[in-house]
Task: structure prediction
Amino acid sequence: MSDSERKDTAEQAEFRRYCKAWIADNHPGEPTVRLPLSPLEIMTPEQMAYLQSWQKSAYDAGLVGCDYPKEVGGGGRKDCQRVANEELVAARTPYYPNVIGLGMAAPTVFHHGKEALKQQLLPRLFSGEDIWCQGFSEPGAGSDLANVQTFAEPKGDKWIINGHKVWTSLAHFAEWMIILLRTDKGHKYEGLSYFVVPIASALGKGVTVKPLIKMTGETGFNEVLFENLEVDDSFRLDELGKGWQVAMTTLLHERGAGELVTPRAGGLKSESSLSISSRNVMDLATKTPRGAQQASDDPLLRDRMVRQLIREEALKEHQRRSRVPALIDHPMRLPLQNKLLASEIAQDTAALALEVEGPAASLYLADENAPARGQWPLAYMNSYGMTIAAGTSEIQRNILGERVLGLAKSK
Amino acid sequence: MAQPKNYGFEEEAGMLKDGARRFFAEKLPVDQLHALVADAYVPERAPEVKWRKELWDEMVALGWTSLAVPESAGGVGMPWVAVAALLEENGRAAFPSPLLTTLQATAVLSHCGQAGEAALAEVAGGCAATIAVMDPAGSAVPGAVKVVDGKLMGTASFVQDAGKCDSVLVVATDEGEPTLFWVKLASDGVEVRQDAIIDLTRDQARVSFDGVAADRIETHGAAAWDAALPTLWMLLSADMVGAAEWLLQTTVEYAQQRKQFDRSLGFFQAVKHDLVNVMIAIDESKSLLYSAACAIDHEPERARELAHMAKSSASDTAAFAAGRTVQMHGGIGFTWECYVHLYFKRQKHSQLLWGDAAWHRAALAALLLDGPSAAAAA
Result:
């Protein structure tokens, strides 16, 4: 019996038994398409369709959104999403493709949307039938998010949207977008409002999605151009001018510090993928010749691999310690470190793998001699997406310094 | 064996931690500590022991020396995770006392079964103890003291807080085999020579044994000694994590008050990000500390691995937090009157004691990459 099981409430224990049984009967097994490392790297419609069908089956079984009320398509359970997540991760099922929908859009719509809107949007979001993307970043508003200029002008009970979003992951698959807009040019923070907009149905009618190529050579994120897109006022979340506060709800959940647990599934990838962990790098080092020895005999590399292992272990332990109030000084101190640490540790681990591989780390995906099929250089490059997206590491440090340590604000 | 979700850190552990924090803050606030240990600022200080014995007597009266003593030997038998919390507070106050060494000795004795119970009973009764094992290079590999004709001969180096202790647990070799002895420091043939060390909050000595007849408490001490090592590392790590928290908190307060270029220091990202990095380092060390302590209580097969992690991390954090603190305090931080040098030096001392970060990582690498048998031979 695992430790979390020992602490289960009666409802959680019953739900866990149910999850185990369902997963045992419904695990899709070895994927029939090549699955990339993360949902943000989904490139082909085949990959998307495979993963959508998996999310749909998990939703139909009650494993997605199960802590949300039944009226909005949830399971009406209490503190059970964590249980489903644990069982799915342990069973190494495929991940869900609607990662922005589940992680960011759902809690934001739930906390700030009108009842009818929630009922319209959330069931299809949970089921994965509607993929979501997030329209925050703009060419002139990255880390300075409050500087967004995409403008919504009132026209009766409708809004006319014009502007340019960029680095928008999954937009080429998305039906809906959560979007931060400017509704008042005279005020920076108070001039922002938050909407949901249907983008797939508006393609060619006010919305253009242009795929961008990542430095890895892969697609996955986009530019989204708005030209006189007309949307109904019922798509607005919360009050006019409250967009910044709504965005904070999104960001809190994006950074893993929100109170609604994001549905997660296991880390199953196709055979050619890898997971970024120091154990994998150590494994790589024991198989990589270096002169007459193995890379794993190099004392400097050993030290650094173990250093990475220690950082990973600490990050894992943070989850446990953050639930022991006597052992933390500030409630947000550990949760706000999650995103920063996870992304920087992954980046450093991938960088180390390249050093272990040596010159062969330059051999990329298409080279038949590439160690690990060129996945480590791909992972290393992609890791910069993690330290930049959702607030750069520098912004995360500002937030930690200001909110947790109480240092003077830089804005 | 699984670890409990809350590290087994129950309500009484929290009360112990809170009570200890109040005790240390009230009994010896940092200005008084500075006055006690740093009143003179001669560069070549004589080897000396500066502490207040009556405060130790109060700690004994509070039962802190019996906390980790198993109930079978007349102690309280609290989990090590609670003891870690106590030592975290001890480090936060940089408190001069033999608490750490006494608890470390307790850890070794606790692995000796019945043979250790007489000594443990003394500890529970307030006997302050330390450990004599290191050679002049600081290696904690038994051999500095040997058994010759049934008596102890040799000199152990880097014996912590010997000037404050009543007894010493000697890890001597008898025909090459580590063997444990319990010796009164006042015994005939024992000589304690104090070192002049940078850390003003502790003392350290070379302890010589010249044909000392001593109580042998464990004839096969190798296993007990080896099994206790993770606890020794973990306990020192706890002190370092607490001291690092003091450094962070003090520097944050300074960065909020001190103005330069018309702004508080903490406004500037070079300072803000550095402070956040110190916080991140402390949190890493602290999570690993409680994980290691919990493993010692509940999952001994993982204790060594996790204690290596904890001490490696705590050593790096100690040096980093201390260095950044002096730097961010600027000229004031480099001044004798400023309290931070007390912690800076305590952290330097701790960082290098019982294995520095690189040593623990090398040991962990051996454990993980070469297997347990190779690691034992190293």
About this structure: Chain B touches chain A through 47 residues (CB under 8 Å).
